[in-house]
Amino acid sequence: MEHQITLTEMLDARERRVFKQQELLAKYQMPMICFTMNIAGPVKNNPLIRKGFELGKQYVKEQLDSLKITPVYFAEINEPTGNEAYYLLDMDPALIKEITCGIEDGSNLGRLFDMDVLKITGEKMERAESGLMPRLCLICDRPAKECSRSRIHSVEQLQAKTREILNQAIEKEDSCHAAQMACRALLYEVCTTPKPGLVDREGNGSHKDMDIFTFMDSASALWPYFETCTRIGIQTKDQPAEQTFRQIRFAGRRAEASMLSATRGVNTHKGAIFSVGILCAALGRLEREKWRRPDIVLNECAAMTKGLVAADFAGLTEESAITIGQKLYLYHRITGVRGQLEEGLPAVRNAGLPALKEGIARGMSINDAGCSTLLALITAATDTNLIARSDLSTQQETVEKLKNLLADCAYPDKEILRRLDREFTEKNLSPGGSADLLAVCYLLFFLEREG
């Protein structure tokens, strides 16, 4: 049950806030931002409102960081009576007011922010002093003060509009952030150098039809897809996990078309569209604080793809098996990336991500740690790309060779990696499936490090 604030509690909170403002102004002798939320009704704080408040703090930080300004003092209070943040800033209050009004007027969410700017004297900077228009009503876009005085809108209407604004803003923020991190992971993967048989900054490996710029074109084209997957996850999070997966499959087919259009027909990221798209949808289904927990994210991927192998390969016969993946399943029961996802990506969970984090912990660059992570992934999952470019026995021999190498040295130097690259290229081998899993490792690492 949400805590409903009484009038007495609200008045006490306002009195305490005024006292704190006066105390801080007297101590620091500089202008202040006092940031609170405009929330109608007796419920002034809950998880949704707090998320909106956190976004407001993020917007303030971004603007101050862009000006290379650090608050002399910062504090926040989170009570049932509402969220409050105090910033003491050694700068012109007119400039501060310009920043806060830009935030308040820059989006629908900003209309829920109340960012008062107080001068050293305690006097509040008004919008009119900066030649700015008065704030508008949440519902009808008339001046907010007029609607407030006349009570033209009910509390229920204002609460419904507030929830709508908060939910839309959080959905947009989360989906954009997931897409940004996903594209970053794809770019880190292709830039990791040297990678045996794969496109990187030093060459094209075993590929004649693509280079690093082809991958950049492809990754850029996939940004909207990753955002869509995350949004679908958010919108279906109360439904069974398998339903989220079913809804992103059409988006995945459209993403393949966008990729092929951007690369002029070259398949750069088909595997990543599948695996990273599922991961983004899993993020959408989860609360933001759980994004930094790889096990939880991977468990959600498994829940989304439960029964996928059986469903996709049901009724396969020698006559109907056309793709390499279908034939490998039919003759060898190799499940490929489908099986990996249905099991929660054990190659990533148990081999790839630990190798990446251990390398970073040893002081290695993310590039060098990533190179060894790729080798670990090749040994931990059956890479069907390797088989497609050779045969099953060659893939198995390659895995055994890499296992022996990693047993002697978990993080081979560049000389060894370049020798492997020459060997893979001469044999036309390309561990593209493992490269996709490396991108997944990068994405999970970025998200975990944000915590």
Helical proportion? 55-70%
The pLDDT mean sits at: 95
- Amount of beta strand: 5-15%
Class by helix and strand content?
mainly alpha
What's the arrangement of strands in the largest beta sheet? 2-3-1-4
State the distance separating the first and last CA atoms: 29 Å
- The total count of helices amounts to 19
> What is the H/E order?
HEHEEHEHHHHHHHHHHHHHHHH
List the uncertain runs: none
Shape: elongated
Overview of the structural elements:
The protein has helices at 7-28, 47-66, 93-105, 144-150, 155-191, 212-221, 223-235, 241-263, 270-285, 294-304, 308-312, 324-332, 336-342, 346-361, 366-380, 384-388, 392-408, 414-426, 432-450; strands spanning 32-37, 73-79, 82-88, 113-118. Strands 2-3-1-4 form a 4-stranded antiparallel sheet, sandwiched between helices. The chain has 451 residues and is mostly helical. Helix 2 (47-66) packs across helix 5, helix 5 (155-191) packs across helix 7 and helix 8 runs antiparallel to helix 9 (270-285). The radius of gyration is 27 Å and the shape is elongated. The protein is built from 19 helices and 4 strands.
Give the key terms:
single chain, 451 residues, mainly alpha, 19 helices, 6% strand
Task: Provide a brief overview of the structure.
The chain is mostly helical and about 450 residues long.
Topology:
Blueprint: H1 7-28, E1 32-37, H2 47-66, E2 73-79, E3 82-88, H3 93-105, E4 113-118, H4 144-150, H5 155-191, H6 212-221, H7 223-235, H8 241-263, H9 270-285, H10 294-304, H11 308-312, H12 324-332, H13 336-342, H14 346-361, H15 366-380, H16 384-388, H17 392-408, H18 414-426, H19 432-450
Antiparallel strand pairs: 1-3, 1-4, 2-3
Helix pairs in contact: 2-5, 5-6, 5-7, 5-9, 5-19, 6-8, 7-8, 7-9, 8-9, 8-10, 9-10, 9-19, 14-15, 14-19, 15-17, 15-19
